[in-house]
Amino acid sequence: MKKSIKTLNKKLKNFNPKIKEECGVFGISNAEDASALTALGLHALQHRGQEGCGIVTFDGKNYFSEKRFGLVGDNFNKEKVLKKLKGNYAIGHNRYSTTGENTLRNIQPFFADTNAGGIGVAHNGNLTNSISLRKKLVDEGAIFYTTSDTETIVQLIAKSKRKKTIDKIIDAIFQIQGGYALVMLTQSSLIGVRDPYGIRPLVIGKLNNSYVLTSETCALDIIGAKFIREVENGEIVLIEKDQIKSVKPFPPKKIRPCVFEYIYFSRPDSILNNKSAYEYRKNLGIELAKENILEADMVVPVPDSGNAAALGFAQHLGMKFELGLIRNHYVGRTFIEPSQKIRSLGVKLKLNANQSAINGKKIILIDDSLVRGTTSHKIIKMLYDAGAKEVHVRIACPEIKFPDFYGVDTPTKKELLAANKTNEEICQYIGAKSLNFLSLEGLYKAMGFNKRNNNYPQLTDHYFTGDYPVKPIDELGDNKITQLSLLSTGSNN
Q1: What is the CA radius of gyration of the chain?
Q2: Matching CATH topology for 19-256 and 279-329+339-466?
Q3: N or C: which end of the chain has fewer CB within 10 A?
Q4: How many CB atoms lie within 10 A of CB 382?
Q5: Over the stretch 202-248, which tens digit does the pLDDT of each residue have?
């Protein structure tokens, strides 16, 4: 039975039509029940990664670690597990793999002993030069245990000749490139690091006398912590003895956060640049409506990713908003291993048409993005089979034409539909009556800007433009370095 469940979960995971989330990080200093608070924070960040989760704690003398496959609520929900994680300092991580295999040893946080003491590291993002650095470190005699790029950071910290931990970290981050947010735990401090462009998010909160570092503000809300501020781009935050210090080792740059945090990744109730992600997504729908005046009977979102944009679209045009598609939120908990015939039903495992609402109706279908188009095709067919008269698709972001190298699991360029087909060809492929994407100009207006600054864009928007703020070094050149081979193992024991 266990094998059957594992097989099914793998198949369902592979059926994800969306750009897949990156990871979530959480850290807390000087707090009673630090492990339980960390587990709650990770639970709030579950949308950022579902493959595995881990917590490292420190009690003033020893470090403790637990790493598990699966969801936080299935692994850190029992007192006996949390009691093993002693101490008032803790960091935690939800994993969605963008580099490395899905094996237990790749689950974070990672831990290492250095000549300055132990250090735990949790990482959200991706290094664009990790393979190059890894090869160099191996050539120098380093031994790697995992296939994760996070271990490269740990190795660089451990290898540094500097005496103080903070100086070791500075040594390491001057060698790495990419989009990253790090939360680290030492014997005396909780440390947060954000990449020079601020591509990946990291925020600071406070719970009584305890400081919190985490990916999103929703993780602060769940434990009752107060949001203080975002960690600035290129900033190192050092928390020790209930004091917070800021170190800025990099030359100053203007911030360029990842646009998909606003479009899709962040939970709707999380605050980004003083607004909720929900508000930004409604604005995307409003701008989309301004560009697409169309007569129809109703606006229908693709749940849950298209909900806010569809609501903004409908409200702006004074149109009827209907849940024409119903999502099954428990698909990953089924105990039935489907046959090939059942698997072929595909999208119906997650979505079903609300026939009574859409039968005979002209529909505007709203989603946040379109990647491969395979699921859009199935959804549109499902709506027509349920009696929809017309299905017009509107996408609340521009065409995705370029892959990501900063911690988001996007398909290669050859798999991205908009990189290889015209708008008309995409429309025909997915079976829609019409198809339009939000313009790049409309996207920036929805984000609160007059227009895109083409000389120095306000957002990391390479998905649409190919404008990468950090060169993907591992992907360049004729002699691309491949990941070093490692024995694949995994256990949840």
Answers
A1: 23
A2: no
A3: C
A4: 22
A5: 999 999 999 999 999 999 999 999 999 999 999 999 999 889 999 99
Asked if omega into 304 is within 30° of 0 (cis), the reply is yes
Question: What does pTM read for this prediction?
Answer: 0.89
- Helix, coil or strand: residue 363: strand
Is 276 strand, coil or helix? strand
Our answer to whether residue 23 is catalytic in this structure is: yes
Cα 89 to Cα 3, 63, 462, 482: the distances in Å are 37, 10, 37, 37
The Cα angle at residue 460 between residues 456 and 465, in degrees rounded to 5 = 80
Q: Give the model confidence (pLDDT) of 47-57 as tens digits.
A: 999 999 999 99
Residue type, 197: Y
User: For 19-256, which CATH class?
Assistant: alpha beta
Domain coordinates in residue numbering, the chain: 19-256, 279-329+339-466
HEC profile for 25-76?
A: EEEECCCCCHHHHHHHHHHHCHHHCCCEEEEEEECCCCEEEEEEECCHHHHC
Catalytic residue, chosen from 23, 218, 397, 427, is 23
Going by C-alpha positions, the residue among 208, 207, 179, 206 that lies closest to residue 193 is 179
Residues shown for the chain:
493
pLDDT digits (tens, 9 = 90+) for 362-406: 999 999 999 989 889 999 999 999 999 999 999 999 999 999 989
- CATH level 2 (architecture), domain 279-329+339-466: 3-Layer(aba) Sandwich (3.40)
Classified as helix, coil or strand, 280 is: helix
Longest CA–CA span in the chain (Å) reads 72
Residue 487 pLDDT more than 50?
Answer: no
